[in-house]
Amino acid sequence: MNKIIEVKDLTKHFKVTSKMGAKINFVKAVNGISFDVSEGETLGLVGESGCGKSTTGRLILRLIKPTSGDIILEGKNINQISDKELRKIRKDIQVVFQNPYSALDPKMTIADILSEPLSIHKVVYKYHYEQEVKRLLHLVGLSEKDMKKFPHEFSGGQRQRIGIARAIATKPKFIICDEPVSALDVSVQSQILNLLTDLQSELKVSYLFIAHGLNVIRHMSNKVGVMYLGKIVEIGAVEELYNNPQHPYTKILLASAPIADPFSVRDRHFVKGEVPSPISIPLGCSFHPRCEFAMDICKIKIPFLKNIDPNHKVACHLSDYQERFGGE
Amino acid sequence: MNPLIINASKKALSIILLFCIFIYITVFISTVPKNFTIKQVDGKWTATYPIKNIMKSVNNKLVSLAQGDYKTTSNGKDAIALIKASLAKSMRLLTGGLIIAMILGLFKGIFDSRRGKSKDSSLKILLTIIPISLPDILIVAILQTFAIWLIQNGIKIFRVAGSGTWNHEVLPIVALSILPACYIARVTALSIESCYEKEYVKAALGKGCSGRRILWNHVMRNAFGIIFESLSNITALIISNMLIVEYMFSFPGITSLLMNSYRSFDSNITIVTVILIGIIYFALDAIFQLLKRATYRSLKEDAA
């Protein structure tokens, strides 16, 4: 399959100064991540709060400027183009935000919100805006009577549908879904997820699906990346990763997800301590202070993503050790 | 009945009540005799004039004013013509000052809000805050000194004081507009910056909107609500400025008439001018409230 987007060593360090302005530190929000997404594929990005998932999404969208790294969209490095060219490329990368209550301009009608991207990128001739807006509303399960209403007249689920309609208005190739169902009721979440799945099969669009919920990620994704303190620690095909996690952090994450079966017995995995500050990331493997399997090498050498299977990579010295010497 | 009409009626009634209280207090203060005092006599507190008589005088004064008993000033001039002329001049100053303050304030605010180096941002904010912290008298004095310097160099556009031609009104209008403009600039900059933090602006950027489109279609439309909400705060500011501006420029406006009538113990003219200034204040406040309601959508939601 063709690669729609490739991210190579993407890094973002935010500068912070002390109150007196004397000391300068850097919050290493995203610390050299690499992945790619193929046509029609969904890459799920999962991790705890503050690991850099949303920052990754915003970096790809170029809402914030990367410190270093490359973002290649269909062979073009969007990190090195002018603002004018970037505005044209935004037609192909769109976003669905987490909070449907703040993602829609309260002063604009739904018709204005949906026709804005049409007019910016000249997707259709201007006399066809109304027709196209109606088509988009039908596509996301809303009525054309809703065109003249304002965002405050809709529920959270309906607003998210409008956000999705806005995202698909420019017929993009790649959509970043930044926790699109986190702010919604459970009953509404499934409707939105099914809508996204249906749109993907209809429009052949690729997703970067950012979420906390492991079940949601499993349902939506073809491939999953697990992030910890700004780095991808494991990435692979969804069933391979869920059934055979290799990284200790991935194991802990999967073990912490509740299963609706009081009689199920699972392996217990313990994590010690708190998440270190992204300003002072531990030397070597960033997870080693909390890892029950930490070795001496973990404290000094940063592990890089290595293939353990054709569709499975992990950044862990333990998996190297097991590969070399066998055993668990 | 429509909730909007009920709310508007309640608001109007409260304003009318407030205005009536304001008129009564104004007449009361003007009617109290100058040697009125309260002193202790044989262990009891006694007023030099019975309160009952003072209240009766206040009511009589109100009745006489309502009947138009202020047709001449204490030196025999036509009071109505004098009041009309003064009011017209002050309204020109006020209108000109407000228009310039709004235009300058909005554009300065947009300019201040542009992200750049922190040093540049600090300088821009400083240029907005410094005039707010200067006394009005100093600002007027600076403008007058500037006018004198221009005249000395042969440029006779502005006049230092007086009235009669449009040249006499330029500097007073500028002086009246400076403080409100700085206040509006500060509010505009802050509201624009808060709008830029909103997700719908990030969404617009993600759609490919240009900076100008984001500013006018998204940011300013939402910022106007916040700006208009704060405009009623400048009502008192601009009217109190008008007192100083008219005095220092010897401009024969309504506040100058008030001061002159007070000095000459012309109580009728004093009361009428105070009431007129009060009407200007309430009218201006009402206009700003209407603008706020027209642009601030969430108030309409609450009303509905």
Topology summary:
The complex is a heterodimer of chains A (328) and B (304).
Chain A: E1 3-17, E2 24-38, E3 42-46, H1 53-60, E4 68-73, E5 76-77, H2 83-89, E6 93-96, H3 110-121, H4 129-139, H5 156-168, E7 174-178, H6 186-203, E8 206-211, H7 214-220, E9 223-228, E10 231-237, H8 238-243, H9 248-256, E11 306-309, E12 312-314, H10 317-325
Parallel strand pairs in A: 3-8, 3-9, 6-7, 7-8
Antiparallel strand pairs in A: 1-2, 1-4, 4-5, 9-10, 10-12, 11-12
Chain B: H1 3-31, E1 38-41, E2 44-47, H2 51-66, H3 79-113, H4 118-133, H5 136-152, H6 167-196, H7 199-207, H8 211-231, H9 233-248, H10 254-263, H11 267-295, H12 297-303
Antiparallel strand pairs in B: 1-2
Helix pairs in contact in B: 1-2, 1-11, 3-4, 3-6, 3-9, 3-10, 4-6, 5-6, 5-9, 6-8, 6-9, 7-8, 8-11, 10-11
Number of strands of chain B: 2
Tally the helices of chain A: 10
Q: pLDDT under 50 segments of chain B (min length 5)? A: none
| Number of H- or I-type helical stretches of chain B | 12
CATH topology of the largest domain in chain B: MetI-like fold
Taking the sheet with the most strands of chain B, its summary is: 2 strands, antiparallel
Round the Cα radius of gyration of chain B to an integer and report it.
Answer: 24 Å
What can you see in these coordinates?
The complex is a heterodimer of chains A (328) and B (304). Chain A is α/β, with parallel strands linked by helices and 328 residues long. Chain A has a domain at 250-328. Helix content of chain A is 30%, strand content 24%. Chain B has helices at 3-31, 51-66, 79-113, 118-133, 136-152, 167-196, 199-207, 211-231, 233-248, 254-263, 267-295, 297-303, and strands spanning 38-41, 44-47. Chain B has a two-stranded antiparallel ribbon with strand order 1-2. Chain B contains twelve helices and two strands; from the N terminus they run αββααααααααααα. In chain B, α3 (79-113) packs across α10 and α4 (118-133) crosses α6. Chain B is globular. With 304 residues, chain B is mainly α. The interface between A and B is medium-sized, with 28 and 20 residues.
